[in-house]
Every structure is written in C-alpha cells, then in structure tokens.
Design a protein that fits this description.
about 35% helix, eight-stranded mixed beta sheet, globular, seven-stranded mixed beta sheet, about 30% strand
C-alpha cells in the first residue's frame, strides 16, 4: 500500500489516462476550484454537494484527506468525482463521496468518462487501502453497481405564487401553520451571526435521535466556504430560539439539510412555521424545487415531508470494494446501531463534548 503522500503527490498527479482523457487529482490551485465549480454548475444533475468548497470544509473540520478526481480532455473538464478518505478506528478505511452529505458520486459527460473515473477511483482505493468505496448518487448512475440502503430524497416542486402553494396544502397542514402563528411564534432569517442560537437547538435534538452532533466548526466552515449560499432560519417564542433550519441555495433548488426544534415546544408546531416560511420565500425568489433532504420511508420525518406534497425518489447510493458490508449505508449496520443506542443514554453535556470527536468518524 502506498502512503497518502505518494498518492497525493504534486498538484495534478495523474491517476489514469484513457483514449485522450486524463484522470487527475485536483488540488484546486491557480483557479482550478473555479473550473471545477463551473463544471458542476453547468452539467445536468449537478448539485451543491459536488462543489469544491466541501473539500476544505471536511479537511479543516475533521482532518480527512480529500482526493478530488477530475477527467480532462486537454483543458476541458469532462467529469468529476469528489472523494474523502475516511480512516475510522471503528469502521475502517473507506473512500466516500461524500460523507456527512446526502449526495456525491460521479458527474460525467458520458458513460465512458464515468467508467474512466470509476477505474481511477478503484486505483486510488487500492493505493490507500480502502475496504469500500461509497458513491452517493442521487439518481440512476452510469455504473453497474447495486443500490445500497433504503433512503429516499424528498423534493417539492414549487410554483412562482406562494399563495397557490398554500391553497394546495390540505386543511390539517394549514391549521398547524396557523396554530404556530397564533402561538406568538416569530421567525426570522439570519447568517453566521445567528449560528449559536441554531446550534443550541440542534445539538440536544441530535442527541435525542442517537446521533453524535457535528462540531460548531463544521457549520462555521460551511459559512466560510459558501458565504453567498447559506442562510439560517430561526423560530422564537418569547425571545427564546426553539427551532432552526440550515439552508442552502444552489441553482434552482432550495435545500434544508439540517433542521431541529426543541421537543418541549413541538405542540406549538414550530417546524410547520419554519418550513412554510422557507417554502414561501423560495417561491417568491424564483426557486423551482424545495429539497427536504433524505429520509427513511415510513419514518416520522418522512411522513412530515410527505404532507407538504414532496415527491420521493430512491437515492442511488452504491458501493464497491472488498467489504461493502462495512459501509454505513448498509441497513442494520450493527456497529452503527450500537453507537446510536449508546448515544441516546449519555448526559447532554457529555454528548456535546465528545460528540464532534466521534461524529467525524461517521460518514452517514
């Protein structure tokens, strides 16, 4: 097995060459990040998880090395594959595209380039000794690999008229939103300056769900990497923040990858007000899709998203390698279930203290 230094080499190290296509490691020097992001933004199916800034976010927060592969024909970008090398004491070595996010995987101009990138990925996997490669495609990919796990994306098509959206909701949902309004809940938009209020709600909710919480630095690095694309939406009751959503804007889609509310106030329906405001704002600012994020079919979060009219689509998460059962996307991963069960029993201060240390070892 080669060392990471040997693999990484100098900027632009070639992994594979095939029929005029060079597959190289991209270190984002001399404007390469702009060329990478321009490709992601223009290719059909491009999504915010593929942007170059996530490499810096994950490396700076958790220290995992990013190996970002791109396929070049001369100076023209023909495909990209962002990969993060996870070396977990509990779950072993893996290459993930992308950890902590719903999506990732290969984006390429055609099937041949997709397969060239996959071959380069397999070469890289062998070099770093990864047991499994995990590719989080949002839709059917160009690779002949089985779909792993059972997660679905929940996407709501938007209209330009928010009132038309409101009229389309069923009466029960509208009454829940009205209840939040009548309970004197207030809602406002903010940037990084409101992050601590969001985190004070997010951290205890993640502990209740049995999931170690991301570090504060993780979210603050996201603000640094994407200053024009990130907003926070907060719900307050008597000047206390009781709910919040971390919002991402990309192309024609408005996404909420992380949201929480305090359990003690859920009878007031803060989440309903939170999502209605986000949907209303998205309609009025010309977005065509509202991304609720991934869910497990039949779970409580799935039912919450479904009531808004969200359409489900299967996430085409795919794995390759020597031990695909080591992947955390596998249903019933025993080690992951043990972590979740243990986490729910920890006191909140202890969970908040050691949570970020463990969270960086979990790719899900």
């Amino acid at each position: 097995m080669q060392t990471l230094e040997m693999v990484h080499g100098k900027s632009g190290s070639s992994i594979l060459s095939h029929e005029g296509i060079q597959t190289r490691l991209c270190d984002f020097e001399a404007g390469e990040d702009r060329a990478w992001d321009d490709y992601v933004r223009r290719i059909p199916g491009g999504q915010y998880c593929l942007l170059s800034g996530w490499k810096r976010v994950i490396e700076h927060t958790y220290g995992h090395r990013g190996f970002y592969l791109w396929a070049l024909e001369g100076d023209t970008v023909r495909g990209v594959l962002p990969l993060i090398f996870m070396n977990s004491m509990v779950f072993g070595r893996s290459l993930v595209s992308l950890p902590f996010l719903d999506l990732g995987g290969i984006q390429a101009d055609d099937e041949d380039i997709a397969h060239t990138l996959m071959k380069a990925c397999q070469e890289l996997s062998s070099m770093v000794g990864a047991k499994v490669v995990e590719l989080r495609h949002g839709a059917s990919s160009l690779l002949d690999l089985p779909i792993q796990g059972s997660k679905v994306m929940m996407m709501l098509p938007l209209q330009s008229d928010s009132q038309a959206m409101w009229t389309g909701f069923d009466g029960k949902l509208r009454n829940q939103i009205r209840k939040a309004m009548k309970s004197d809940l207030t809602i406002h938009w903010t940037g990084a300056e409101g992050f601590q209020k969001f985190y004070n709600v997010f951290a205890p909710n993640m502990k209740d769900l049995g999931s170690p919480v991301h570090s504060r630095k993780f979210f603050l690095e996201i603000f640094k990497a994407f200053p024009d694309d990130i907003s926070l939406l907060l719900v307050e009751k008597d000047h206390q923040t009781i709910g919040g959503a971390f919002c991402v804007k990309f192309q024609d889609t408005f996404s909420i990858p992380w949201a929480s509310s305090l359990g003690a106030f859920r009878s007031l329906c803060p989440n309903n007000l939170l999502y209605w405001e986000a949907i209303r704002w998205s309609c009025e600012h010309g977005y065509q899709w509202f991304d609720f994020g991934r869910s497990t079919r039949g779970a409580g979060t799935y039912k919450f998203k479904k009531q808004w009219g969200a359409q489900e689509s299967i996430l085409h998460w795919q794995c390759a390698g020597k031990d695909i059962n080591a992947s955390l996307v596998q249903n019933g991963n025993a080690k992951l279930q043990w972590v979740m069960d243990m986490w729910k029993r920890l006191p909140l201060p202890l969970a908040n203290f050691i949570g970020p240390l463990l969270r960086g070892q979990l790719s899900n």
